[in-house]
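ok posting inputs for the zinc ion job
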Amino acid sequence: MRYHVMALAGLLVTSQAQAAPDPTVHYSLKPVLTDGQLTAVEFDMRFQATQAQTEVDLPDRWARGKDYYKGLKDIEITGATAVSIPANRPAQRILTAAPGAEITVRYHVDANLKAGEEAPIATDMTYPVVGPNRFYILGESVWSTVAGTDERPVTFSADMPAGWAFASNLQDLTSLHGNDSDVAESILVGGTDLHIESIQTSHTRLRIASAGRFDFTLADFTDRTERIIATEQAFWNDGQPSFLVTLAPISPEPGHMSSHGEGRPGAFAIMTVPDAPLETVTFSLAHEYFHSWNPEKLGQTESGADEALSYWFSEGFTDYYGRKLAFKAGVVSLEQFIAEWNEALDRYANSPHRTAPNTELRDHQWADETWHKIAYDRGSILAAYLNAEWRTKGVTLDRFIHTLRDKVAADPGLAAMPTEQRVASVAAGLGVPASEELARFIDRGEAITLPEDAFGGCIRVIMKTVPDVDYGFDLKTFHDTHIFRGVKPDSPAYTAGLRDGMAFLTFKDKDSSDSSMPATFEVRDTDGKTQTITYLPQGKTSHVRQQLMVPAGLTADQAKACAAAITS
Ligand SMILES: [Zn+2]
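and the output
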């Protein structure tokens, strides 16, 4: 405290200044209650200035969200002799303060939900959700950081009112990086109705923090989560000391099936509509938990915009293993495993960017979902392709990825290589050179065709000619007005009873890009009567795609042997 006063008075004496300023940044948060209701969450950052000018970055933008600093109220900065906002950089503050001066940056974020409301679908986890009894916040949207090249050590505390529970990955900084990158990538959940379950697996103290109501039971969700985590830890024979899964609701909206998952250091955050099928959440959890190793322990990813150059590996191989290990964990059936793969193969076959070079994928990464997804699908299909090819030489993809983990841990030079080069180097060391395949399928974007026995066991990868998806009405008018127009008289939609002028009420199944899956709408006809219309959204043109299938009539023993082959 004395130090603080002296710095403020500009009297920093040499004898006091001998100890170098402490680089640690102390973060804390506190719910603000009015008449027992949460009206705001207060955020506080405290640190010592290490040089005459310090730049503080207020939360600004992140993958899907932006302008977070505009939501911060009553920004108060103490301990500096001057604070300025640079021209054209409204999210930054330049602080003038003697080295060693104690700086505090404080502000709050106001409640944005009323009693009984849940987060709207549009949230997409891009802004803080603050209701009367609960908050659900990703760190990117609220925390400020001290700019500079060095990552600073951090501490974290939360000051909860009586009767409130709180969960965050920041509660166990020792198992994270322990620096300000963790704070940006935090999940912060608190509330009066937050339920926290704590389970000890062989490697990890697993906490599941959930609030709100869902169609699935919490016991079922917890069981699946635990089995996925245990299976992936067994796969790697490794696991971090603690892991947090958070689950919070999005308010249901007719016609939308929405689930969002965000991987965080030492945590996975899920927001979902109450009627989301547990399988969707399960695959997503298996994918996200696999990120604890890929890319976390498999070498550095490219930095900045170039990070997307490695998505075929960090996301695609993670999709491959997420599906495989979810199946191995026994939380999805063989049918669900096959359906998940077929959805990916179908998306890939239909993708307008199927043969785009990897640099184009990088350049358009956030342009839209089709650009974003292609690296995932290309990567997971390549993983299956390489596994099949290498297996003939006695090397499985599992052996490759375990070797990669071990070699990266032992060799910083390998860890720092570009992803493609690193993968090729480890593969070559195992006697399965891969640079030619990587140049073809990743760099140049040539289409990948899986061999028939790529998945082993009884699963066959077959070629199928399938009709292109055509809903048979004008999609643009439909999206803009929710009224069906331009229904083609020779379409399956018309045959099923759909007519111009009908009003859309709800979807009865998920929006699909697969023409073999029925589209079912509830509509109101022009007489005001409600009807259900079901048809296959098949157009007159077609495309060829690969798909997984299992021969009909397998005995139980055959099915079991088949399953074992997929996961071996
Ligand atoms: Zn991912």
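notes: DSSP finds 16 helices and 25 strands in the chain. Confidence is low (pLDDT under 50) at residues 1-17.
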